[in-house]
Amino acid sequence: MTAPPCSAEQLYSILIETYGPQAWWPGDSPLEIMVGAVLTQNTAWSNVAIAIARLQSSDLLTLDALLSAAHEEIKAAIRPAGFHNVKYDRLTALLHFVRTSGGIDGLMRWPTEALRTALLEVKGIGPETADSILLYVFGRPAFVVDKYTRRLLMRLGHAWANNATYRVVQGWFVDGLEDDATLYGEYHALIVQHGKAHCRAQPVCTGCPLEEYCQHSRSRCGSDGVQPPDGPRV
Fold it and tell me: Are 173 and 8 in contact (CB under 8 A)?
């Protein structure tokens, strides 16, 4: 018998029970989190961590240092995050916005929607990056939608999530949850953790806590959720 659809609240309960609190975002300061949000675009966090460590070791992880240091010095430091020329331009654009808007302390006083609109006007800042900054830097209740979020919803039977707009996917979660930044931050981190542990591009169905809700598991891995012996593994 097919299990009923998993609600946003049920999904969170399963993930938090399985993985526990994630204490995200990894970063020692609002500026470091902001830098990480740009550098993590289209790359693994392990590469971003190397880039941030290089910025720290070179005393470059301050607003003044990042905006005044030689271009090539910053690019060399962030090279491990990939696309270093593009990300340098995006990071610089974001940091100029921060400086000309009263710094992070000044931006803390902006209304959420005004701040989100302004962030989206910065070169290279899309909805996912903007909401990551809103949530983890400024503590605003902005639910972050990333590739793990869409993949998870699709495998749970929500085919619409593949081509739906960012706001529509975000709304599925927001409509079923309390408007709480701490909850949103934990939820996003749990989805990422689950995406790495089980819901990969080539899924690891064995032991998945969402097996009873996962249509992809039933169709691809069999009724018991176990991949065939010759199935691809990651």
Answer: yes
